[in-house]
Amino acid sequence: MGLIPYGRQEISEEDIEAVVQVLRSDFLTQGPKIPAFEQAISNLVGASYCVSTCNATSALHVACLALGVGKGDAVWTSAVTFVASANCALYCGAQIDFVDIDLDTFNLSIDALRIKLEHAKLTGSLPKVVIPVHMAGQSCDMFAIYQLSQEYGFSIIEDASHAIGGSYHGDYVGSCKYSDITIFSFHPVKIITTGEGGAAVTNHKELASKMQLLRSHGITRDLNEMVHPSDSSWYYEQIHLGFNYRMTDIQAALGLSQMKRLNEFVDIRNVLAKRYDEMLFGELLFLPKIKESIRSSYHLYVIQLNLGKIQKPQKEIFLNLKKSGIGVNLHYIPVYLQPFYQNLGFKLGYCPNAEEYYSRAISIPLYSSLTFQQQDYVVEKIKENIQ
């Protein structure tokens, strides 16, 4: 049957032709496909502005900077996420802290966040920004987080790297109804891909303008932003210390083509997830629980082993599945357990739920071209190993 990866891109002939057309055009980097791709994302999610970037990490960085994150500030994010969700705060010179997760959804726990905020208020250490992560494609409880932001005065960046095409209470993830900025990723294993790439969406013009400036060296050609009057058509000014975080027209063309099938991809992932739910249900596994009024985009399907009822350890099951040609993975090691973060003072036991999750989680294959036959094989091998 060959290796079944945990995730992979699906590239059509139409996608290939879209890229070829750009390669034959006059624009390879900053051409018309970029604004077209940005507009397609804005139209889908219902946000006013979209700023594309070379990857989601750079989008997180410029989002933090646009919100004024800097030295002396604190940023909080989920304990279970990819390291980029935390690194972006450190890039800005801020401090980072972590909030424990909910074991059913793998998302930031609202109760844990509330308790942490109450304590931070007493100690004068409230965060400037909170970055909830929509783990595996399911939106966090954004209304609850928004209510807390109104009470405690922090801004919100949704890390929706896993969640484009998902929805929360009838709105697409990225509407920014309950946040300042939302970030998407277009890495090949995500729902749609641009090869590498990311985007930040917002409803605030000033935040969009700042992020556009920062992604392109801090350079402007807008007369209203310049310090000195322009004396020629070639004149430009660098008014901030920016970065080369721009997406290319080649990437945008692929993304624009993929956007046409986004809803189809998410539909298929939901069908496959439902099959997993039905075939793997039982007392030996804890399966993902999707909350009411939320539609996950199912970037990942994560099972948790009920280690109290399974005789084999997590590592043995993981390796056995690998040997069977199933490309399982583990998303993620709690960020604060990484050596870099432990050097900052974080210790084992900081977020108990995150560590319990890590001790029993395995990501199993889920992508739009996964066949029922392949899925049945994955289920067969999982059952062989846990029974």
Structure in words:
Helix content is 38%, strand content 15%. It has 387 residues and is α/β, with parallel strands linked by helices. It has a seven-stranded mixed β-sheet with strand order 2-10-9-6-5-3-4, with helices on both faces. Strand 7 (167-168) and strand 8 (171-172) form a beta hairpin. Helix 1 (13-23) runs antiparallel to helix 8 (249-259), helix 3 (56-66) crosses helix 4 (84-91) and helix 9 (262-280) packs parallel to helix 13. The longest helix is centred in the last third of the chain and has 19 residues, at 262-280. The protein is globular, with a radius of gyration of 21 Å. It starts with a strand and ends with a helix. The model has no long low-confidence stretch (mean pLDDT 97).
- Name the poorly predicted regions: none
SSE topology string? EHHEHEHEHEHEEEEEHEEHHEEEHEHHEH
Number of strands: 17
Shape: globular
Straight-line N-to-C gap: 23 Å
Query: Percent of residues in beta strands?
Result: 5-15%
Counted by DSSP, the helix tally is: 13
Spatial order of strands in the largest sheet:
2-10-9-6-5-3-4
The class by helix and strand makeup works out as alpha/beta
- Describe the sheet with the most strands: 7 strands, mixed
Gyration radius, in Å? 21 Å
Fraction in helix = 25-40%
